[in-house]
Amino acid sequence: MPKRSRNPSSSNPLSDARKGVGIAQKKTIDLWHRKSGAGYHLFLEYYASQPRGVVADAADFEGAGNTCTTSVQLMSSNSKAVPPKVGAGMSRAAKKRQKKKAKTSTVKESCAEATSIANEFVPVDDEISNISAPASNKDSSNPLIQAFASKLNHRHLASYVTALASPLPLTFRIRKNESSSTEELKETLAKQYTHHITPVSYDPSKSIYQSTKSSGLSKSTLGTIPQLKELIVSASTNGSIARQEIGSMLPVLALKHVHAITPGAKCLDLCASPGSKTLQALEIVAQGGKGRIIANDVHAGRLDSLKDAVSRSGLPKHYTSRVTYTNYDASSFPPPKSGNLFDAIICDVPCSGDGTIRKDKHILPMWTPGVSNELHRLQLQVLNRALTLVKVGGFVCYSTCSLNPVEDEAVVAAALQQVVNEGGNSRRVELVDWPNDLLSGFIRRPGVVDWKVGFYHDQSSDIVEEGAGDFGSISFYANERDAKEAGMDTNVTLWPPESSKIDELHLDRCLRLLPQDNDTGGFFVAIFKRLK
Ligand SMILES: C[S@@+](CC[C@H](N)C(=O)[O-])C[C@H]1O[C@@H](n2cnc3c(N)ncnc32)[C@H](O)[C@@H]1O
Q1: Whose CA is nearest to atom 12 of ligand 1?
Q2: Are residues 48 and 154 in the same domain?
Q3: 219-222-223-225 Cα dihedral, nearest 10 degrees
Q4: How much is the pLDDT for 473?
Q5: Do residues 325 and 417 both lie within one domain?
Q6: What is the distance between the alpha carbons of residues 284 and 291, in angstroms, rounded to a whole number?
Q7: CA within 20 to 30 Å of 432's CA: 110, 112, 296, 411, which one?
Q8: What is a biological process (GO) this protein takes part in (predicted)?
Q9: Is 460 a member of any domain?
Q10: Angle (deg, nearest 10), helices 276-285 and 246-257
Q11: Is the CB of residue 331 below 6 angstroms from any atom belonging to ligand 1?
């Protein structure tokens, strides 16, 4: 197995490492990552190191504290990274020595103490225990559960991991449009399938449906009830329902609630394919035969799928004709020729997708924090562009299907600060609270003001040689200077805002949708209003 050189200036060591090597070696690295299960371990290590509020709340930390002993390691005194467990390029003997040293410097704490200091310390994951998978999750063959079972000091992630390891319930929304008769469908569902699928309790319009916990019905098991499957497929084809995840519905619901998406409005969907939000917004703006949606995507092929989705939606022609398709890089989307800016902009940026892992099995095996660190730049550019294209008094909804703060609050905070720092006072924007009377009873978490920024030390070639259970490690750096000094390719906006800025940013107005709260995927939403 030939060794490949590591590029220390890489922000995504895994992908950058692939750039510098031949095809055969790329394949080997990919294969190693997929087969080794490294992604699962790195994902757990990364999220377990995050402060409360990111994916686990105070009760989760306390719950873990009551039942276990954990080990934590203090970050080095100059706030640099926790040293990687095994150094790349070291001899085996040196690696063993380093491991031993790391163990002796590990501070053992009772979980109660560890709970109170968990936000200040970074767990070290080389203490393997015999802890078992969460009792409520029966699928012990799930690789995430298997990885979690080996992590004594990650117990505060138990409810998060349990939710992620179970299939995503089936969800859809009943469409409102002039031509489809949905009352009959609602009646059939209520009469024949109420044990399988019901309207969610927090939606007063009773148009959002989710399969019941007791049925365990998901996309992959729908075929076990052939008549229900047929009903759902035909309702999707004739435009009566839209298969969409609950998290994905939030941006348009919010923009509608603040009266930015209304019949006749002019909307821009900057990153639109495959089109769930375009279609959801279209159902509102096209009412009355007016209104327009510009549906944009940088990938021509994906734009074609979006066109297909719109034409297959079952929506009437006088709705679908209200969509205009464009093919720009959203970060340089041109201003409208008319000079009239947009009433509402949906900014559902490309993301690492780690909120979608309940349905997408391809994300976790390849997971590294570098993917989020790298996407952050583009996400910020796209959001900044959206904030210049919305009219004064209009709204932008920024969203991702990732719970990584680097892709969420870090982008939001940077955009807010850049607008303030622009000089000339040309624009003013603020974050808007999620409206209290929208989906009341739906559990939502506030945005966080603190998080850790991690970088992956890829050691796959060493690991392939050793052939056993070590997956490289994540180093956390307290600030950009330290990360730069350590050779990371980085960017100052990845880090949490200075404490003096926290009050003015109102990051708590963002919405984090944790999978364990409403049995959904993970999702993040921030609503901006342009004031000037
Ligand atoms: C999260 S998906 C959007 C999902 C979509 N909003 C929906 O609800 O169905 C992100 C989309 O952004 C597109 N994209 C990636 N980079 C882009 C860029 N620079 N400009 C515009 N679109 C981009 C991708 O092709 C992808 O279709």
Answers
A1: 271
A2: yes
A3: 180
A4: 80
A5: yes
A6: 9
A7: 296
A8: methylation
A9: no
A10: 30
A11: yes
Cis amide prior to 274 (ω within 30 degrees): yes
**ipTM surpasses cut 0.95:** yes
pLDDT, tens digit (0-9, with 9 covering 90-100), for 446-501 = 999 999 999 987 655 554 444 445 677 899 999 999 999 998 889 999 999 999 99
368 and 510 in a common domain: yes
CA–CA dist 295, 312 (Å, integer): 16
Cα 512 to Cα 319, 387, 405, 525, distances in angstroms: 32, 21, 10, 7
Round to whole Å and give the CA distance between 265 and 466.
60
Identity of residue 468: A
Place of tokens 């940077």: 414
Query: Is 106 in the same domain as 195?
Result: no
Q: Does 71 lie in the same domain as 204?
A: no
Residue 8 in any domain: the answer is no
Would the CB of 272 count as within 6 Å of ligand 1? Answer: yes
Q: Is 302 in the pocket of ligand 1 (CB under 6 A)?
A: yes
| Co-location of 221 and 147 in the same domain | no
Residue 334 pLDDT exceeds 50: yes
d(CA 164, CA 66): 23
Residues 181 and 300 in one domain: no
Task: Return d(Cα 102, Cα 365) in angstroms, integer.
Answer: 27
Structure tokens at 163: 């939710």
**Structural domain that includes position 513:** 246-451+496-530
Give the 3-state secondary structure percentages of the chain, helix then strand then coil, rounded to 5: 40, 15, 40
| Residue of 43, 114, 44 lying closest to 72 (CA atoms) | 114
Sequence letter at residue 99: K
In a domain, 5, yes or no: no
Catalytic residue list contains 401: yes
